[in-house]
UniProtKB/TrEMBL annotation:
The gene is nodA. Its EC number is 2.3.1.-. GO terms for cellular component: cytosol. This is Nodulation protein A. Belongs to the NodA family. It is found in: Cytoplasm. NCBIfam families: nodulat_NodA (TIGR04245), PRK00756.1 (NF001974). N-acyltransferase required for nodulation. Acts in the production of a small, heat-stable compound (Nod) that stimulates mitosis in various plant protoplasts.
Length: 196
């Protein structure tokens, strides 16, 4: 990690409008190269795509926002079993800092995850990121699960779309307060809300 990058934990209600504007621009530039659709939610000052995080780990350098990871505590259902998790999402690294990695943002967030006393951190990523996540997993106790469907509500209701969507992403599980053996077996995860 570059020495000039400083991580800051920010509660959502601590962010000012200028912070949201800067983060929205960061996400447009970070997610835009993966497709215009991925950058679309971050118009104007909107710095979230679905559910809003309650806590953010934001890395800054002399240019501005360098990396980001959001956290939201919520109950999900794994084949009908209620489970409290800290969902991690809104992960991004500025393209000129590739290699800064999710490992750094998780390490910044880890004391807070432990303080929250959640049994697991949970997140999803596109299957194309498997190698990236598995590389991170060599340095952290996480499990990557495939062949699990995740149902989420859409963040904005439209009469021409169903209210939910089902995807088959890679599911990332990180034990925090319980061992991975306590994660319920199942092939369907209900977020009961929009993706973080």
């Amino acid at each position: 990690m570059r020495a000039d990058v400083q991580w800051k934990l920010c509660w959502e209600n601590e962010l000012q409008l200028s912070d949201h504007v800067e983060l929205a621009e960061f996400f447009r530039k970070t997610y835009g190269p993966t497709g215009a659709f991925n950058a679309k939610p971050f118009q104007g000052s909107q710095s979230w795509a679905g559910a809003r995080p309650e806590l953010r780990a934001i890395a800054y350098d002399s240019i501005g926002v360098a990396a980001h990871l959001g956290l939201l505590r919520r109950f999900i259902k794994v084949d009908g079993v209620d489970l409290l998790v800290a969902e991690l999402g809104l992960y991004g690294v500025r393209p000129d800092l590739e290699g800064l990695g999710i490992a750094h943002s998780i390490q910044v967030m880890l004391p807070t995850l432990q303080k929250f006393q959640v049994p697991f951190a949970f997140g999803t990523v596109r299957p194309e990121l498997r190698k990236h996540i598995e590389r991170f997993g060599r340095h952290s106790p996480l499990t990557v699960v495939s062949q699990v469907s995740v149902r989420s509500t859409l963040p904005h209701a439209r009469i021409d779309l169903p209210p939910t969507r089902v995807e088959d992403p890679l599911v990332i599980i990180m034990p925090i307060g319980q061992p991975i053996s306590a994660w319920p077996a199942g092939t369907m995860i209900d977020r009961n809300g929009p993706e973080l």
